[in-house]
């Protein structure tokens, strides 16, 4: 677990994980064991939830990634005490929470979207909140209209300014009747974190129901919230006057587990992912098997490997329980080695297939159709574009000099370089540290042949 800033714990890690440029010598299968910790897309939200409690919270299995470090810094500038009790165990004390000034918040926001989730808890706690310009991966324009519309319905006054968004709630916050235009993960979390302390009942329709959302509901229920999860994506929240701290072990990181599984396919390797569980990965495992992968579900993890020649598949990303958008980028690298033509239709983000250009530079044959598959209906309202990739394989990959565009795209480039014949230079790999704990150490454990050269 990192020290107060985003510095990794060990000196050895510092020297390796500060590197922004990797030289990778490919052509070797990845074989061995990696262990995934708590989910990046859950632990950060549970940390924000601690602001709602009147007593300390303990969060376990917290991954050592910069997204967690960013949220930790933001909590600390708001006066929340954050102590690392032991590796991966955070004790969060909100009793000293205070308003922070704009400059401090802005300095600590980093390339993360999590700050937007501070709105509800800070409005309950302090009657005001300031949210800086948000970061996050460049995979689309990442609007927050669903969030702001919901906060207004709770009674918040939202004032968008050039430097960020100022919010206030002079009359406090009341329950709301909210139907999301799309089952947005972030907007669902926004509503949950605001409704639990609002006066009265909130009804949320068309909610996201990802396992990470359900784990956040479990955390809030531990704190004293009354949340009922109804059929057809409806969630009722009865506001309560006060909440206490929680003690919770984070759900495992499905995205990281799926990433390593795709690495085993792409490099013809054999990777045991400790901590991975079948239930939350059912859809991924079906696609993995159809693509020519084999897996063994064991007590403490899942073993992933190739089962003969890779086969083409047709995949459409969707909200849970569909095929997660975060899984498609590593999968596409493996599909470049499948014998036939695969299609991946990205329906969640409008620009999450741009990373394929660099794969083509490495010898892949991927055509991206910006209009997606010919279907006039768009999942995300007012979405101009979806995209669809057509991947023809198998195409031997060769080394190239590439620059990481985003978190999952960056992971995919490293895997492609490991699958390629020859040497690759992968730049801007610091982005990968945002979401993959001890990434270089894990590659080393799996026998990857690389050096950090810059
Ligand atoms: C979360 O992003 C995850 N990030 C993403 O993971 C993940 O891909 C995404 O959920 C979908 O599962 C975190 O949890 C930190 P959304 P989020 O709101 O909450 C549009 C990764 O690699 N939208 O479900 O931002 C939006 O543009 C990251 O770990 C609006 O139009 O996702 C997108 O097209 C990448 N208006 C779609 O909805 C809004 O106000 C889904 O976004 C909000 C979203």
From TrEMBL:
Q: Which residues carry this modification: 2-(S-cysteinyl)pyruvic acid O-phosphothioketal?
A: 137
Any GO molecular function:
UDP-N-acetylglucosamine 1-carboxyvinyltransferase activity
| Disordered, as annotated region | 1-20
Q: Does the keyword Transcription regulation apply?
A: no
- Localization annotation: Cytoplasm
Taxonomic superkingdom? Bacteria
List the catalytic activities from the record. phosphoenolpyruvate + UDP-N-acetyl-alpha-D-glucosamine = UDP-N-acetyl-3-O-(1-carboxyvinyl)-alpha-D-glucosamine + phosphate
GO annotation, cellular component aspect: cytoplasm
* Residues engaged in binding UDP-N-acetyl-alpha-D-glucosamine: 113, 326, 348
- Positions of phosphoenolpyruvate binding: 40-41
CDD domains, alphabetized: UdpNAET
One GO BP annotation here? cell division
Q: Which InterPro entries match?
A: Enolpyruvate_Tfrase_dom, Enolpyruvate_Tfrase_sf, MurA_subfamily, RNA3'P_cycl/enolpyr_Trfase_a/b, UDP_GlcNAc_COvinyl_MurA
Composition skew (Polar residues), residue ranges: 1-14
Give the enzyme's EC designation.
2.5.1.7
- Which residues belong to any copy of the Enolpyruvate transferase domain? 25-443
- Pathway listed: Cell wall biogenesis; peptidoglycan biosynthesis
User: Any idea which residues are catalytic in this one?
Assistant: 137 (proton donor)
Ordered alphabetically, the record's keywords are: Cell cycle, Cell division, Cell shape, Cell wall biogenesis/degradation, Cytoplasm, Peptidoglycan synthesis, Pyruvate, Transferase
What the entry lists under Gene3D superfamilies is as follows:
Enolpyruvate transferase domain
Q: What does this protein do?
A: Cell wall formation. Adds enolpyruvyl to UDP-N-acetylglucosamine.
Similarity remark: Belongs to the EPSP synthase family. MurA subfamily.
Checking NCBIfam families in the record gives: murA, PRK09369.1
Q: What is this protein called?
A: UDP-N-acetylglucosamine 1-carboxyvinyltransferase
**Chain's gene name:** murA
């Amino acid at each position: 677990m990192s020290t107060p800033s985003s510095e990794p714990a060990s000196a050895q890690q510092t020297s390796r994980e500060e590197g922004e440029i990797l030289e990778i010598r490919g052509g070797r299968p990845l074989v061995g064991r990696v262990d995934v910790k708590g989910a990046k897309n859950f632990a950060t939200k549970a940390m924000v939830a601690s602001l709602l409690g009147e007593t300390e919270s303990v969060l376990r299995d917290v991954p050592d990634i910069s997204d967690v470090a960013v949220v930790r810094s933001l909590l600390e500038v708001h006066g929340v005490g954050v102590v690392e009790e032991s590796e991966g165990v955070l004790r969060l004390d909100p009793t000293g929470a205070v308003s922070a000034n704009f400059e401090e918040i802005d300095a600590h926001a980093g390339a993360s979207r999590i700050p937007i989730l501070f709105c509800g808890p800070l409005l309950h706690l302090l009657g005001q909140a300031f949210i800086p310009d948000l970061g996050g991966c460049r995979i689309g324009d990442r609007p927050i209209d669903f969030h702001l519309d919901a906060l207004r319905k709770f009674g918040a006054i939202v004032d968008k300014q050039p430097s960020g968004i100022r919010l206030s709630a002079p009359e406090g916050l009341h329950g709301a009747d909210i139907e999301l235009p799309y089952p947005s993960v972030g907007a669902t979390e926004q509503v949950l974190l605001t409704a639990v302390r609002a006066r009265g009942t909130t009804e949320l329709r068309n909610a996201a129901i990802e396992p990470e959302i359900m784990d956040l509901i479990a955390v809030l229920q531990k704190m004293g919230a009354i949340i009922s999860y109804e059929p057809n994506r409806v969630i009722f929240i009865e506001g309560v006057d006060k909440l206490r701290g929680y003690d919770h072990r984070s759900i495992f990181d499905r995205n990281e587990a799926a990433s390593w599984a795709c690495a085993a396919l792409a490099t013809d390797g054999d990777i045991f992912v400790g901590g991975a569980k079948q239930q939350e990965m059912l859809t991924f495992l079906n696609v993995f098997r159809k693509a020519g992968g084999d897996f063994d579900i064991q007590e403490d993890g899942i073993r992933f490997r190739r089962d003969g020649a890779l086969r083409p598949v047709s995949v459409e990303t969707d909200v849970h329980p569909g095929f997660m958008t975060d899984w498609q980028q590593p999968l596409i690298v493996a599909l470049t080695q499948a014998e036939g033509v695969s299609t991946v239709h990205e329906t969640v983000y409008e620009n999450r297939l741009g990373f394929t250009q660099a794969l083509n530079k490495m010898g892949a044959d991927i055509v991206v159709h910006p209009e997606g598959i010919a279907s006039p209906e768009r999942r995300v309202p007012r979405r101009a574009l979806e995209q669809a990739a057509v991947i023809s394989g198998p195409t031997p990959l060769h080394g190239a000099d590439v620059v990481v565009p985003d978190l999952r795209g960056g992971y995919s480039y490293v895997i492609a370089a490991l699958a390629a014949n020859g040497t690759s230079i992968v730049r801007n790999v610091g982005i990968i540290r945002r979401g993959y704990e001890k990434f270089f150490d894990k590659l080393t454990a799996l026998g990857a042949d690389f050096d950090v050269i810059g």
